Design the sequence.
């Protein structure tokens, strides 16, 4: 569904890729795109990834996403108008797409969408929701990383390993803190140079984002934007294990083969980044406690382990195995 917002005049896309397992669920992305069609493409690709994420995570929802293409600079008034427009469009879909936060939105924005939409996820805790999903997402990435480290290095421990995290935002900073606490040597990177001082204060190394994939490391963690793993980047990569939360990390699926054939273990983003959705649904739909919901997020370690074991046994890639697992669930 593509519409120009009546209040904001901005292009709004709501994409529902699959409803085979339940209503389409997925975040609302508000960001600037060079062309409105890039926002449309982003929504379609992200919605497809959400279908895979939900199916592999074993949650009864399909994949959706909504995207508003903002101008290069946005006033608070325009942003509010865009959210009202988005909420109205989602409301007109009668519950077939359920939104949550994504890049450019947060739990407080869900309150605005709820004025129009029948259901939203990740409301602030003060309004009965589970709040930001970035903490549980980081917990899930760490679970996937442990399984990956066991397969690649023979031990789940990160002590003494060098980890480069590209994207020092909500998830990236939580990952940096946890990995450093477990004894990893952490280097971070961000396009926002203002984050450099904080990173250095916390004792992390810093590398320019363009140089992050080539930085000598044991583990590379894409925690910023999609499309970071292009063939040209893979020829520079040094880390044998690549795992992170950024959605749609590969420029195209064939890159998974290239990574595999060059000896890199890449854990599909839709597997590693499912912690937020697993936690939020466990809390907000099933009413589980924080502890029980977090325990379910830790299940990502066993899922990752299964996919890596199958890929090794079948001579395939973890991506192929993850898609096969999702297919068996969505087509059952
Ligand atoms: N937050 C969640 O619960 C969640 C869940 C699933 C997936 N993800 C994905 O994980 C990634 C990080 O999420 P977040 O919540 O930490 O977002 P965030 O916006 O808090 O942080 C992203 C950071 O990346 C930086 N950045 C942008 N472009 C960059 C580039 N080219 N190189 C290096 N840094 C760059 C930004 O300046 C920002 O600091 C996003 O791709 C998001 O879609 C997040």
Sequence:
């Amino acid at each position: 569904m593509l519409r120009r917002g009546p209040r904001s005049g901005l292009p709004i896309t709501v994409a529902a890729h699959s409803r085979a397992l339940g209503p389409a669920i997925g975040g609302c992305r508000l960001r600037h795109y060079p062309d409105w069609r890039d926002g449309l493409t982003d929504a379609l690709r992200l919605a497809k990834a959400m279908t895979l994420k939900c199916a592999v995570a074993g949650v009864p929802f399909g994949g959706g996403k909504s995207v508003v293409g903002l101008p290069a600079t946005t006033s608070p008034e325009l942003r509010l108008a865009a959210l009202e427009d988005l909420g109205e469009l989602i409301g007109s879909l009668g519950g077939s797409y359920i939104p949550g936060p994504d890049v450019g939105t947060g739990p407080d924005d869900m309150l605005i969408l709820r004025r129009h939409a029948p259901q939203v996820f990740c409301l602030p805790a003060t309004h009965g929701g589970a709040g930001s999903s970035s903490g549980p997402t980081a917990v899930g990435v760490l679970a996937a990383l442990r399984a990956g480290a066991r397969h690649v290095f023979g031990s789940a421990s990160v002590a003494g390993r060098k980890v480069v995290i590209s994207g020092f935002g909500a998830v990236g900073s939580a990952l940096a803190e946890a990995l450093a606490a477990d004894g990893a040597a952490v280097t971070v990177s961000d396009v926002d140079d203002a984050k450099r001082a904080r990173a250095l204060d916390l004792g992390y190394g810093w590398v320019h984002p363009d140089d992050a994939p080539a930085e000598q490391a044991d583990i590379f963690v894409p925690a910023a934007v999609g499309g970071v793993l292009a063939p040209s980047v893979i020829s520079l990569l040094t880390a044998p294990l690549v795992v992170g939360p950024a959605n749609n990390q590969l420029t195209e699926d064939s890159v998974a083969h290239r990574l595999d054939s060059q000896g890199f273990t890449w854990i599909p983003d839709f597997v590693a980044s499912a912690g937020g959705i697993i936690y939020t649904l466990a809390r907000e739909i099933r009413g589980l406690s924080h502890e029980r919901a977090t325990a379910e997020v830790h299940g990502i370690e066993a899922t990752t382990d299964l996919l890596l074991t199958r890929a090794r046994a079948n001579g395939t890639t973890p991506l192929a195995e993850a898609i096969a697992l999702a297919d068996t669930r969505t087509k059952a």
In short: Residues 102-103, 133-134, 137, 166-172, 189-192, 209, 223-225, 245-247, 273, 276 surround nicotinamide-adenine-dinucleotide (CB under 6 Å).
